[in-house]
Amino acid sequence: MYDCTFRVLFWEFRFAQTMIFAVEEINNSSTLLPNISVGYKIFDSCGSTLPSTRAVMGLLNGQERTAEKTCSSHSSVHVIIGASESSSTIVINRKDYPSFFRTIPSDYYQSRALAKLVKYFGWTWVGAVRSDNDYGNNGMATFITAASQEGVCVEYSEAISRTDSSEEVARVIEVIRSGSARVLIAFLAQGEMDILLEEALKQNLTGLQWVGSESWITASHLTTKRYSGILTGSLGFTIRKAKIAGLREFLLQVNPSQDPQNSLLREFWETVFGCSFQSRLPGQIQCSGSEKLEDINNPFTDVSQLRISNNVYKAVYAIAHAMHNLLNCGQSAKLPTLSGEKVYFDENGDPSAMYELVNWQRNQAGDIIFVAVGSYDASLPNEIQLPLSVCSESCPPGFRQAAIKGKPICCFSCIACAAGEIMCLPCPLECWSNEDRSQCVPKVIEFLSFGETMGGLLAAFSLFGASLTLAVSCVFFRLRHTPLVKASNSELSFLLLFSLTLCFLCSLTFIGQPTEWSCMLRHTAFGASFALCMSCILAKTITVVIAFKATRPAKTVPQCSAALQRTSVLSCTLLQLLICVLWLIFAPPFPYKNTVHATEKIILECNLGSPLGFWAVLGYIGLLSLLCFILAFLSRKLPDNFNEAKFITFSMLIFCAVWVTFIPAYVSSPGKFTVAVEIFAILASSFGLFFSIFAPKCYILLVKPERNTKRHMMGRNH
């Protein structure tokens, strides 16, 4: 914000305040980088290459104070917005730093536009003066090359620096005065332009048509009467101006009280109002801090020509959108600002080169104003199509350059980037490259859904099983007074049918996108349903054994009271519920994004939380089924006409076979197929229990009702 004489440069200070304004807008936005605050650090380049380069290298190496000599630290600064001049940022080579972008068009296009401009007006004999830095030297070199192609000759090309002696500046003015060219191309930064104009006033340099670069052609401080005799009628290209809503109000709020420790704010205030906060010399005004910026008019408060300021504003928004897209696995070459302007970068990191042609004219009041008299768009096709002459064409998206041994660097081969990379840089963990590997896109999220064929079929079988169980319950209820239903212990039968309905329905909780609640519900519902089912079968098995071990079967039911059956079912089920509750308290299942099994997609699954809890639930069900099997097997030779133990034995064989097969299949199945295997095991074991126990009874109840008699139930031997 200072120049070499340590004067506060108002326009540079406005650039810094514009950056702060944009940062505060972004931090207050609910859509751009929500819940993320952007911070900043501002370093003064003093209008010189060395301090600005030192600051940049310090930021890159994590030495923000830039006093250290080593380069081994890491910086907390992730993005650097360069100075308004090229020399301090051009040292950052884009080939070494591919994330180097700019919001101001490359001076290459401006230089070519100036050559076309002088050709348009028929000025074929011109003089040239430039800043002796990268901005001026590179810009003028491009202009001279383009001008020669347009048939324009350059009489002289002089260079000046803001550190040159007055004698050297006077020599340059003398060259311009003595030359015969009446058109002067001034590719100068504002600092050199100020020095050149002061010397031009001393030597009364007039009668020239000035053609300026964008650095000074819209500098409002040059439109004063002091320079009007020299610069009136000047022409030049400048970047487009824009309006930034709320910026003027923000600038007018700047006050040293915002940060009393900020010496720059105090010096700015003293320079603006010609006062001092400390010294009380005779005749010197004491600063109170209550002075109002809205009462003065200077380049800081002038927002009528927001050109460089607008590009600072766009740079901050480009950074914010890039961070936002990175966090959301997106990528876009076009980024909108809050004012609605689109920011675009081409493959070289440059915006589209579009300029306004401005002319210095006097209004009715006699003041100099900038009038737009034309425009230049570098994206429009050239009048002459040049032949393409390259050793190797640029690599398409998804490929990288590889040097060819023994060939110049202009010759290279293109090697495809690996899957999951763009520009041969890996995508974030939850993203994957698209087909042409030009951008990162969110990975496909896989889970067993109702919409796919496998999920729909499993859901259909689940509902079919539940419906079938309810239908049998209705049959049993309607025929509850018949001998067969009574002999089957109707209370346990209805409870068993209810538990089987739950077993069928619990498989539905395994289908669909896993959530915190569904993950906890699916395993606990499965464990409780099958524990209730096994408890009912165990109670029925015990009832059958006691009934047929009695000397008089007709009196066995009173001996095995209903209260005892209920107690056994309740106690066995409650023990499983206790295991589930402990599991949910200490290590409940939770939704988990599995990115290890498949790199190109995310498998959304339920993490067990505690594998011990899962296997304890499964093991308890296995223990109950094993007890049922042993008791039923021992009772298999009871009287044939009413041997329910034989059917229970068969059902337990099916049940155990399904779950023993399930374990290796569950462990080895990938992704959503793990869930499908578990659902298949639930449905297969549920159908096995249902058909083994209830199919023979339904056959007698519905097909052979003549067998549904007490005599048949008792058998011939009794």
UniProtKB/TrEMBL annotation:
Top-rank lineage group of the source organism:
Eukaryota
Q: Where is the G-protein coupled receptors family 3 profile domain?
A: 454-717
Which GO terms of the molecular function aspect are on file? G protein-coupled receptor activity
Q: Does the keyword Electron transport apply?
A: no
Q: What is the protein's membrane topology class?
A: Multi-pass membrane protein
Q: Where are the transmembrane segments?
A: 457-479, 491-512, 524-548, 569-592, 612-635, 647-667, 679-703
- Would you tell me the Gene Ontology cellular component terms? plasma membrane
Q: Where in the cell is it found?
A: Cell membrane
Q: Does the keyword Glycoprotein apply?
A: yes
Which keywords accompany this UniProt record? Cell membrane, G-protein coupled receptor, Glycoprotein, Membrane, Receptor, Signal, Transducer, Transmembrane, Transmembrane helix
Task: Please give the coiled-coil regions recorded for this protein.
Answer: none
Q: Which InterPro entries match?
A: ANF_lig-bd_rcpt, GPCR_3, GPCR_3_9-Cys_dom, GPCR_3_9-Cys_sf, GPCR_3_C, GPCR_3_Ca_sens_rcpt-rel, GPCR_3_CS, GPCR_3_vmron_rcpt_2
PANTHER family (alphabetical) = CALCIUM-SENSING RECEPTOR-RELATED (PTHR24061), OLFACTORY RECEPTOR C FAMILY, H1 (PTHR24061:SF538)
Q: What is this protein called?
A: Olfactory receptor C family, h1
Per the UniProt entry, what species is this protein from, by scientific name?
Answer: Neolamprologus brichardi (Fairy cichlid)
